Amino acid sequence: MAGAVRKASLEDVDEIGHVHYEAHVQTYSGIFPEGVIESFPATERAKMWTRFLTANFGELWVAELEGRIVGFASTGPPREHPPVRDVELGSIYVLAAHHGSGLGQELLDVSLGGRGASLWVLDDNPRAHAFYARNGFSPDGTDKIDEHFGNVREIRMVR
């Protein structure tokens, strides 16, 4: 069965919270300091996505495969001031078992279309850097330390 991307609803937030947590475990274990991922469990992530949707902070999309959410992406107004683009890709995650399936590409295409955007990505994430570069993003020389996730360095990419 082929995967599908659609706009998320409030009924999806528990699954999105689970995917968000599992994707962080799969992607950032050994990179984030011990305990950082666990300090933000799936239930708290689901609450965060509920607030995101109810407060209309942006758009939230899910990738489904065989009736299960296996990835998601969010877009919204840029969080930095002054903004370098009108929209920011706030997050995009696909569970590791579905890397290479095309669902990440579909999430990006549906959530952004051909629009210019900014995003922040972990400096130590070559897989993500390659994905974004294939999609026209490049580092603009701006970086920051993300204290929420254990003082990891992130870089901004734009297209």
Automatic annotation (TrEMBL):
Residues 3-159 form the N-acetyltransferase domain. It holds the Pfam family Acetyltransf_1. The keyword Acyltransferase applies. The keyword Acetylation does not apply. Keywords: Acyltransferase, Transferase. InterPro entries: Acyl_CoA_acyltransferase, Bact_Acetyltransf, GNAT_dom. GO terms for molecular function: acyltransferase activity, transferring groups other than amino-acyl groups. This is GNAT family N-acetyltransferase. It comes from Cryobacterium tagatosivorans.
